[in-house]
Design a protein that fits this description.
The complex is a heterotrimer of chains A (about 290), B (about 325) and C (about 325). Chain B is of the alpha/beta class and about 325 residues long. In chain B, about 35% of the residues lie in helices and about 25% in strands. Chain B is built from 11 helices and 12 strands. With about 325 residues, chain C is mostly helical. Chain C starts with a helix and ends with a helix. The chains are: A mainly alpha (about 290), B alpha/beta (about 325), C mainly alpha (about 325).
Chain lengths: ~290, ~325, ~325
């Protein structure tokens, strides 16, 4: 089902994908990180040794110990439990944000690529504007002025990802549309939906998968960053950014909260990025940097 | 002593991790003040050979055997610093595409000055400028001062090629390697560049290795010609002899394939088949699969036979007499 | 060329105007009330009314937008509600520190990135190249505040180096520089990650071009080929792509300022957010948007100017 002539942007995922991804150290690392992260997020409260919001003032700002494996924060809360819950929060925001970005980008890209003409021009201009626009700055303003409810945060982050997904989809549609046998099918009366379903979507799946893997760490980074600045998720919710911010305030007293939170954030973002790069190599996506 | 002596040169390219021969035991000489033409199809190794004279091989290319001696110096035995001074100094090269062979971000003047500075750090800026203007004038550019100030994109193809030749001449090399210098130019400009090359030899005694796939230019310019096929020389002869009476079947086929407007009504003649690929070299004569006279003797690699004043790599009795 | 500049500046101005309008309008479109966020839900009603009047929130939306936008063009970015000082004054005091940090960090970043990119491009696929590649991927994907934080920990908590807190006084250059080193180095490392990667791919492209082969044939030494001939041609490729990374680069600057407690636009914004000081946030965002658009514009114009290929097309 893969497009045959020159102009295909990627090969559709074949069976054995997992094995090929895991063929390199970076691929394995990425897979492990993602699996651990998702498991932690799903199991959250079940595996956390303590209540993440339970205070223990007498033992605040202590380093790792038998009771508190990663130590405690400025209010005596167990760091490990907070970080575990933080995984869930990070994904709760990042995944919907990227998902909305994919969906919106996909629709816009399909519209632009397939309908062409004025629709295409408008969509491209809008995507260009959003991409070169200081969207994060606007996000800052929005959240600063109006407080950060979760839906708002998700939407604001999603907007930032729409252009990249939109472009990739549009490029795929355009390259597939030009293939002779697609043209032939169109002449035989195949409607746009059928063409999209049978030809465009398989071609676009791979770049979208790669882009998703690459954008998820960005989403987590942005969301934690916003929380760190005091926007986004608010304390006492144990978002990683919040834990980092609390730790930063008392960095002189105990480096552990900052250290462990940084490690967790670094591993998460690296893991997803390596996975994305490995997927890109395996799926042979060449247009990951479409401008 | 010949200007260039290539002996049993073998060059390999690393393809898929394994070295594949692109040149097999090639031997050639270019005499002092001689213009030697090197012809062959794309992929026959002539550009590799041209680069090898300056030890300029693309990534993955290695010298696997043989030697190249220029003006008495063993090129492959030079230290990196000596090699650097050798290039441009004792032997220089001009390339096929004048449109991409000059650095687009620097003026002609800067590029010339750079080559001068690299080879002769002591000369003054004024002396260098004098010399640059002089060389540009020598290659036939009418307004050298303007050219010095110009960026490559402001010059025509012919002008750029002349600039390249000027760069090659700056240090008065004894040998010039010209790798298809006229292929990208229109016919009129081609003729001018060819005239310039001949003038070089006549006026300065520069030996020239003229690589080309254009038999017409070769016939006009060269004293002797070497024909290459699949990484080997198959025939070398004086130019008049070669064109009048080609011996090797490949040479005959090549000359037969040149369209002539005298024979307009005939079909375009081609040589059936394709040259062997680098990854799958044949045993025996490389041309045998496409040769109309191939016989059982061709199953083993033919040696180079010397006939009166020329060499031919063939064992057929019709050829060797 | 002049027409192109004029056109680009025009577009930039329009974008900025849109930002300004959007900022003013957003307050009304999305749920939430800046005043109650600022003063708390149990504030005195009179105080709330005063605040609303001060911040011009009672006027109709179009009127508010007009007031703000026209004010901006006159240099008036509103007034800090809590201290009554003009926002432009506060920003004016903070901005130079940010600019100094940016310039110094950029210089350091280039100094770090160029040799690394050359080494990588000279031997693509080698162990060094792959190692540097992994490091730069790491730097780019790990959030900048994480890197900054780790560097802060490393330098101060474990090694006890250099004063990490504060900015120092400009009137005492030595002291100022001492305070500048750590933040500038951290930001430079982050920026170098992006730069090195972009530069490497641009260099690889250039090194494959014919004029490089020709330069070798003329006996130009390798170091000149990389640092003089190839680099000059690789720069446009980097500048062209910098625009995409600009948001990240500016964001990292803000985080570094906050982490190293350095005076500047970032810290100003951070504190204003913490105190819900709406006028400062709004003014700060406007300035950042201006900087962003200007930087994009400069990159675009610079690219046009130094990219020989574009000039070639123009001449054709």
């Amino acid at each position: 089902m893969t497009a045959v002539a020159a102009g295909r942007t990627a090969s559709a995922p074949r069976p054995g994908l997992l094995r090929r991804v895991a063929a390199t150290p970076s691929g394995v690392f990425g897979l492990v990180v993602v699996v651990v992260l998702v498991a932690t997020a799903l199991l959250g409260p079940l595996i956390a040794p303590h209540d993440p919001n339970a205070l223990d003032i007498d033992h605040r700002l202590e380093g790792p110990s038998g009771t508190y494996w990663l130590g405690t924060d400025n209010l005596g809360r167990d760091l490990l439990s907070r970080l575990i819950l933080g995984a869930r929060i990070a994904l709760e925001i990042a995944v919907p944000a990227v998902a909305i970005g994919v969906l919106a980008g996909l629709l816009l890209g399909l519209a632009a690529g397939y309908l062409g003409g004025k629709v295409d021009t408008v969509v491209v201009t809008v995507l260009d504007a959003v991409q070169s626009f200081p969207a994060v700055v606007l996000a800052l303003a929005v959240l600063a002025l109006l407080g950060g409810s979760t839906p708002t945060i998700v939407l604001v982050i999603a907007v930032a990802f729409v252009p990249s997904f939109g472009r990739v989809t549009r490029a795929s549609v355009q390259s597939v549309s030009r293939l002779p046998f697609v043209d032939a099918e169109r002449n035989l009366g195949a409607g746009p939906l059928r063409i999209i379903w049978r030809h465009v979507l398989p071609n676009v799946v791979s770049p979208l998968i790669v882009l998703t893997a690459m954008n998820l760490p960005s989403a987590v980074a942005v969301e934690s960053g916003l929380a760190f600045l005091g926007l986004g998720v608010q304390p006492p919710t144990p978002d990683w950014g919040v834990v980092l911010s609390d730790g930063f305030d008392r960095i002189r007293d105990s480096p552990w909260p900052v250290l462990f939170t940084c490690t967790v954030l670094a591993l998460t973002t690296l893991g997803f990025t390596f996975l994305g790069e490995r997927l890109r190599d395996v799926l042979d996506v060449r247009t990951a940097e479409v401008r | 002593m010949p200007a260039v002596a290539i002996e049993d040169l073998t060059v390999t390219y690393r393809i898929d991790g394994r070295p594949r021969p692109a040149l097999h035991d090639v031997s050639l000489t270019v005499g002092d003040g001689e213009i030697l033409g090197l012809v062959g199809e794309s992929g026959c190794g002539k550009s590799t050979l041209a680069g090898a004279v300056l030890k300029l091989l693309p990534p993955g290319g290695e010298v696997a055997g043989g030697s190249v001696t220029v003006d008495g110096h063993d090129v492959f035995a030079l230290s990196p610093e000596e090699l650097r001074r050798f290039r441009g100094g004792r032997a220089a090269m001009i390339f096929q595409d004048p449109f991409t062979s000059l650095n687009p971000s620097f003026t002609v003047g800067k590029q010339i000055a750079l080559v001068q500075r690299v080879h002769d750090a002591d000369s003054s800026a004024a002396a260098r400028r004098e010399r640059a203007l002089g060389v540009l004038g020598e290659v036939g550019l009418p307004d050298p001062a303007t050219v010095l100030r110009a960026y490559p994109y402001q010059l025509s193809g012919g002008q750029r090629q002349r600039v390249m030749i000027a760069l090659a001449l700056l240090l008065r090399p004894a040998v010039l390697i010209a790798d298809e210098p006229t292929s990208a130019l229109d016919v009129t400009t081609q003729a001018q560049i060819l005239a310039l090359l001949r003038w070089l030899r006549d006026e300065h005694g520069t030996a020239i290795l003229f690589v080309s796939h254009d038999l017409g230019s070769v016939a006009q310019l060269c004293d002797r010609v070497a024909v290459m096929y699949a990484g080997r020389t198959v025939e070398t002869a004086d130019v008049a002899d070669l064109f009048a009476a080609p011996q090797h079947p490949y040479t005959r086929a090549l000359l037969g394939a040149v369209p002539s407007w005298r024979r307009r009504a005939e079909e375009l003649v081609t040589i059936p088949g394709r040259p062997p690929s680098l990854t799958d070299p044949p045993d025996g004569c490389a041309f045998a699969p496409r040769c109309p006279h191939a016989g059982p003797a061709c199953a083993s690699a033919p040696p180079l036979i010397e006939l009166a004043g020329r060499t031919v790599r063939c064992v057929l009795p019709e050829v060797t007499g | 060329m002049v027409r192109y500049v004029a056109r680009r500046v025009g577009v930039a101005v329009i974008v900025l105007l849109l930002v300004l309008v959007l900022l003013s309008v957003l307050v009304h479109v999305l749920p939430g009330d800046p005043v109650s966020l600022m003063l708390g839900p149990r504030a005195d009603p009179d105080l709330i009314a005063t605040a609303r009047r001060q911040m011009d929130l009672d006027a109709s939306v179009p009127a508010q937008v007009w007031h703000f936008v026209s004010g901006v063009f006159q240099g008036d970015l509103g007034q800090d509600f809590l201290t009554k000082r003009p926002v432009s004054e506060l920003i004016g005091a903070a901005l130079p520190h940010t600019l100094i940090l940016a310039v110094v960090s950029l210089a350091l970043a280039v100094a770090i990135a160029v040799p690394l990119a050359v080494v990588s491009a000279a031997r693509p696929g080698s162990a060094v190249d792959r190692f540097l590649g992994t490091v730069s991927v790491g730097v780019i994907s790990i959030p900048s505040y994480v890197i900054g934080m780790l560097l802060l920990l490393l330098a101060t908590v474990w090694l006890g180096w250099l004063p990490a807190i504060g900015t120092g006084d400009l009137s005492d250059p030595g002291d100022y520089l001492a305070h500048l080193v750590l933040p500038a180095l951290s930001l430079a490392l982050i920026w170098a990650g992006y730069l090195a990667r972009l530069l490497r791919s641009s260099m690889l492209e250039v090194l494959g071009e014919n004029h490089i082969r020709a330069a070798r044939a003329y006996g130009i030494p390798e170091w000149r080929i990389y640092y003089q001939l190839a680099l000059r041609n690789a720069i446009p490729g980097v500048v062209a792509l910098i625009g995409v990374a600009l948001g990240d680069l500016m964001g990292s600057a803000i985080f570094i300022e906050v982490i190293f407690t350095r005076n500047g636009l970032g810290t100003l914004l951070y504190n204003a957010i913490a105190e819900r000081d709406y006028p400062i946030v709004r003014g700060g965002v406007v300035v950042i948007a201006v900087l962003f658009v200007v930087a994009n514009l400069l990159a675009d114009l610079a690219n046009r100017r130094i990219n020989p290929r574009l000039r070639e097309e123009a001449a054709a």
